[in-house]
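User: Predict structure, ligand alpha-D-galactopyranose.
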Amino acid sequence: MKESLAASFEKIFGRKPEVMAQAPGRIEFIGNHTDYNGGLVMGVAIDKVVMAALAKRNDGKLCFARAKYGDKVFVDVSDLKKQPKNLNWVNYPLGVFKFLVESGMEAGCGFDMLDCSNLPSGAGLSSSAAIELSSAFAMSKLYGFETDLKSLVKIGKKCENEFVGMPCGILDQGVSGYGKKNSIVYIDCLVEEFANYPLPPDCRFWLFNSTKKHALVDGLYAARHNECMEAAKILSGNGEQKPLRKFSIEDLEAAKHKMPDVVYRRAKHVIEENSRVAKAKELLLSGDISGVGKLLNASHESSRRLFENSCDELDFLVDTVSPMKGVYGARLSGGGFGGAVMALTDDTFTESDAARAAETYEKRFGQKPAVFACASGDGAKLV
Ligand code: GLA
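Assistant: Predicted complex:
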C-alpha cells in the first residue's frame, strides 16, 4: 500500500512524497453516545488504514488530489475556509491543517497531498478520523512541528466539531490515535485520558455492515446530542451545566418529572451505558469474556429501546448473530441509524458462520450485508 501510494503520488505530482503517515479505522466496542457526554467508552483500532502522502510546494497553495477520480482541489494557505458540500472530502485534511497552524505549526509554504485507503467508508469504521489522524501526523512531520499524540487527537476532533460541523466526541480520533495491536483503547472522556488493556488472544471481531445508509451530519446524531445536552441542563439545575457523566441514575429518577419522557430515556441510556463500560473493563481484566458479551448485548438493547438509534436492519443482525455458537455478544457500533453491527466471537466462529448470518439477513432485506473479519491494529504513525 505504501509503495503504491508513493507511486501514484509521483505520477500525479511528478516527484516523490516527503512524508507518509497512516491511521486506522476503529470499532466502537462499548460506550454508545457516551463520549460527548463526558463518559466512558472503549474502542479497538483495526488493521485497515488510511495513508497520507505529502510533499512541500514552493508556493502558498495546498493541493488535495484523489487518485481514483483524477481531480485536484487547490486552497490558498491564506484563505483556509470550509469547502462546499461537493468537496467535503477536502474539509477533513484542510480543517486539520487549519487547527495545526492555529496551535503553532509554522507552514512557510503549501503542500501537495494524496491519500489512499483500504478502509471501507460509510461502514461505521470512522474513515474520517483515520483521514484526520493520518493527515495530522504527516503535516506535523512535514513542517517539523513538535507536538504530542493527545494534541493531534484533539485537533482531529476539533476539525470534526468546528470545521466539518459534526458534534462528535473523542472516541473515533482517540482510538485511531491511541490504538495498539491486541489491545483495547479505554477512554475517560471527562478527563480525556486514554489507556490500553490487553484483548484476550482467542477473541475475534466481525463487522456486519447493514446495507442501510446512516446520515450522521444530517440531523439524527445532532438531535441525540441536543437531547443529551437538554437532560444535562435540567439535571444541572441553576448551577453551571455539568455533563451527563456527573449524574447517577438516582439523580435522573429524582428529576424525571422535570423533563420530557424522550429526554429522560436518552439520559438513562447514557448513564447506564457508562456503568456498562466500567463493568466491561472490570470483566475484561478478570478474563470474563462471556460477561463482557452480555454487556454488549445489553448495550444494543438500550440503544434499541432507550436511545432509539438502532433500526430494523441492525436489530435483525444483532438478533441473528448474538445467539450463534462462538459469539460472545453483538451490538451496533458507532452513531447508529444504520451502519454496522459488531460481534465479538471466539476463534471457533468461522467465515461460513458469518455467511450464514448474512444469508438470513438477505432473505429478510433482499441484500447481503458486507461482512468483515477485523483484527486489531496499531494507532496512527509515520510510515
Ligand atoms: C460516532 C461519533 C463518536 C461517537 C459515536 C457514538 O461514531 O463520531 O464520537 O459519539 O458515534 O458512540
